[in-house]
Amino acid sequence: MSRQRTIEKIMESDYVSIGELVRITGCRYSTLKFYTEEGMLPFEQEGANLTRRFPREKAVRRIEEIRRLREEGNSIPRIKEIL
C-alpha cells in the first residue's frame, strides 16, 4: 500500500514535501532541489535532519514565477536578484 497522499489531500494541505511539489507542479525533483539549495524556494525545517516542509501556495506561486522568468530568458543569477 502506498504512503503517498492523494492529490486532493495535498491540495488541502498548508505544507507539502518536495516530492508532493513535484507531483503538483510537474517540475523535476532535481530542479526543485536546486531552487531550494539556491535559496529561491522557501521552506521550513524543524531540527537538523527533519524533512523540509514547503508552504504549498507560496511554493507553487514561486515555482510558476521562476518558470515564467526562465521562459523570458533570464539567467538563474538574474532570477535570484528579481526574487
Describe the 3D structure.
The chain is mainly α and 83 residues long. The protein has one domain: Multidrug-efflux Transporter Regulator, Chain: A, Domain 2 (Orthogonal Bundle). The chain has five helices and two strands, in the order αβααβαα. The chain has helices at residues 7-12, 18-25, 29-37, 56-71, 76-82; strands spanning 15-16, 54-55. Strands 1-2 form a two-stranded antiparallel sheet. The protein is globular and about 40 Å long. The model has no long low-confidence stretch (mean pLDDT 93).
User: Number of domains in the coordinates?
Assistant: 1
The helix tally amounts to 5
**Strand residue content:** under 5%
The outline comes out as globular
**What is the CA–CA distance across the termini?**
40 Å
Order of helices and strands: HEHHEHH
Which structural class do the helices and strands define?
Answer: mainly alpha
Main sheet properties: 2 strands, antiparallel
| Strands side by side in the biggest sheet | 1-2
CATH architectural name: Orthogonal Bundle
- The rounded Rg comes to 13 Å
pLDDT < 50 runs, ≥5 residues: none
User: What share of residues is helical?
Assistant: 55-70%
Average pLDDT, rounded to a whole number, is: 93
CATH-derived topology: Multidrug-efflux Transporter Regulator, Chain: A, Domain 2
CATH class category: Mainly Alpha
Count all strands and give the number. 2
